[in-house]
Structure formats: C-alpha cells, structure tokens
Amino acid sequence: xxxxxxxxxxxxxxxxxxxxxxxxxxxxxxxxxxxxxxxxxxxxxxxxxxxxxxxxxxxxxxxxxxxxxxxxxxxxxxxxxxxxxxxxxxxxxxxxxxxxxxxxxxxxxxxxxxxx
Length: 116
Ligand code: AMP
Ligand code: ZN
Description:
Layout: H1 7-12, E1 20-24, E2 27-31, E3 39-45, H2 60-76, E4 84-87, E5 103-107
Antiparallel strand pairs: 1-2, 2-3, 3-5, 4-5
Bound molecules: adenosine monophosphate and zinc ion (ZN).
C-alpha cells in the first residue's frame, strides 16, 4: 500500500479527521473509533512503517518515545494505578487491519487474559 492511500498517514496529515489526544516528536495518538474498552487509544509513528516486523535497530529510540507517551496518556486518562494494556497486532494472524504501525492503549476496565 502506498503512503498516499494509507488511512493513518492521511490522519497524520489531517486529510482524514480523527480525535487527536497526543502529539510528540515523530508520534501521534488518537482515539480508536471502535473502542474495545472505556479508554482505547492508538499511538502511531508519523513515519509510514507498515508493521512491527518492518522495524529495525534504527527504530530503537522510537520505542522509548512510544512507551513514554503511553505512560503520559495513561496518567492523563486516569488509568493508574488500576493499570492498562499495550497491544501491537502484527500481521493477519494477529488481526492487524490497518497497515501502519500502531500501538493500542486499552484501559478503564479489567481486561481478559489470554486475549483473542
Ligand atoms: P489493528 O486491527 O490492530 O490494525 O487496529 C486498527 C484499529 O484502528 C482498530 O481498532 C480500528 O477500530 C481503528 N481504526 C480504524 N479506522 C479508524 C479511524 N478512522 N479512526 C480511528 N481509529 C480507527
Ligand atoms: Zn501510513
């Protein structure tokens, strides 16, 4: 898929509307429009990376920034101390449906384990 056709790239460039809840160097966070928990956010790199499997050691600093933003958003959305979950679906067997890397942040209720 080309970047021009990528839904999340189009959200990042504001061609498609979304409820933006956070923005920091190289990252955007939005509300999921089909929430699976009272709080369901998506944290995505502004760079078009199709899947987790496409990341390399060049993306090492990206992960630190993602986890820091997740923690900040969790605090802001009052998910602590009860807790929250980060999920990355990588590929069809994991149920990935948007081919632009994103991390789900879910919280606000007890979550089941194992998922899916
Ligand atoms: P995944 O299945 O892991 O690829 O997750 C894709 C997520 O994107 C799903 O939870 C969808 O509900 C969500 N989603 C799809 N389109 C939009 C959109 N336009 N705005 C916000 N979230 C979206
Ligand atoms: Zn993209």
